[in-house]
Amino acid sequence: MSAKRLFFTGTLCLVVVGVLIGFVFLGNVLAYTKNIYAQLGVFSQVLSYINDNYVEEVDGEKLIDGAIVGMLEKLDPHSTYLDADRFKRLQERNRGTYYGIGISFEIVNGFITVISPIEGSPSHKLGIRAGDVITKINTESAKGITQEEVFDKLRGERGTTVHVTIQREGETAALEFDIVRDEIPIFSVPYSFMLDDQTGYLRMTRFSATTSDELETALDKLTGLGMQRLVFDLRGNSGGFLNEAIEVADKFLPGTKKIVYTRGRLPDSSEDYFTTGRGQHVRFPVIVMVDHGSASASEIVSGALQDWDRALVVGETTFGKGLVQRQYRLKNGAALLLTVARYYTPSGRLIQRDYSDRDAYLTEDAEEIEAEQESDSALAARPEFHTARKRTVYGGGGITPDIRIKRRYLGTVTEDKLARSRAFFEYANHLVANRKLTAGDFDAWKSEFTLSDQDHAEFGRWVKEKKIEVAPDSLLLQADRIERDLKSEIARNLWGDNQRYQILIESDPALVEAMTYFDQAADMARRELEGSLMEPGPAEPKKN
What we know:
Elements: H1 3-26, H2 36-53, H3 60-72, E1 80-82, H4 84-95, E2 97-100, E3 103-108, E4 111-117, H5 122-126, E5 133-137, E6 140-141, H6 147-154, E7 161-167, E8 175-180, E9 182-185, E10 191-194, E11 199-203, H7 211-224, E12 229-233, H8 242-252, E13 258-264, E14 271-274, E15 286-290, H9 297-307, E16 312-315, E17 323-329, E18 335-344, H10 358-363, H11 366-374, H12 376-381, E19 384-386, E20 392-394, E21 403-404, H13 413-420, H14 423-434, H15 442-448, H16 453-465, H17 474-477, H18 479-494, H19 497-505, H20 509-514, H21 518-530, E22 537-538
Parallel strand pairs: 11-12, 12-15, 15-16, 16-21
Antiparallel strand pairs: 1-18, 2-9, 3-4, 4-5, 5-6, 5-7, 7-8, 10-11, 13-14, 13-18, 17-18, 19-20, 19-22
Helix pairs in contact: 1-2, 7-8, 8-9, 14-18, 18-19
């Protein structure tokens, strides 16, 4: 055996032995150890044959990564191997910060186009705007740059400087900026505002290390603006840290109540989590909005508030992820996210959906899942549980909303084409630059701003010049939608993403319908303050 082959095979075997022995000690990957060393011998043979005989030279690290991924595919869909790069990105998202210049961007026509500066970031403070095009970074052309190269060049150590050259519509000469990198927040509560003089709205998109603090800040702001009731939007929130979900639920629940409990094979994976009794937001009515994209930590929060009759849950049945992953760092900089427990809502509901068909579990259409889970036969087969007020709720597949609001698609063919062509974004930036629009009182602007017939005609000519093909008369027939989309982009340019979202969400039919159920939510809040009649729990066994 050649020295190269011996080194290659020996190294791979040592790595595999180390990884698999580690898995054995964890106790969750292999339920048996009797034949493990025999199987390692077979694995070593396969690696040796591949190394000696495969048609092309192989990358040993990729083979090992592939073997680990293959092992995890024999477990549940949420036990995952993250290579070093993916793990680094996950850490940034979970930490809630990174170091850089603070822009949201897309690559358009080969250049970095600023979608929006992040509020409070170095770019925002220097006056960089939506629509700005970065043509050079540190005097080098940025044409043809990739997204990964943008991250490499614009992110860096805190306090270091990057020089960018910007082309801005309405400016004849290029603009030069020296931007000092700083900590940039990745907001998990990006939107919070008043829908009317008594209704607050906030959208939570993930559960990161900063989520509960962000939520408290948003709730305090809304309370100061006169909020008397809240729409808590968890649609599309795929989850995150378990401890942050517990802290979020704790804010809304009075007294000492169970929020969630976990049960696993090992003693340290079984825990019961309770409120602290320090919740500051326990009096006002709450409507929680969920959909099929709401998963994991979102289901912990919505399930706890539903079980204790603290909030009315509206929307679609949630994803159904009731498994808890623990993170294990690996020596190669990668990480293993390994399922160690299942979680249950206060009433005892296991939220995890069946994943025996792994591919269907990950790709199944939301409407098919909804129809399957909400049919009379499906509900009859699912285990029943009771909330604190004796309402019936169901286990075995996500959080079933108290009020079902079917998903309704908002866009039209013309609107979608214009959005994909970046017509709204680019024309709004064009209007801001050419009319010298400036930020003022947003609330006054939102109620007063309209596009004239001449504005609509000019937009039509601009669309034609850009060779964006739309159906004849469609711009005229959809004038209201087009005005809303342009207005939202103007708002983003002048004020930011929070204001853009305020304009868009006003026409969300699910939100409009959800707000009609506040009487029920108010009744829940009143009864909760009077004291629960009983602990939530399993319903009586069904009788044939």
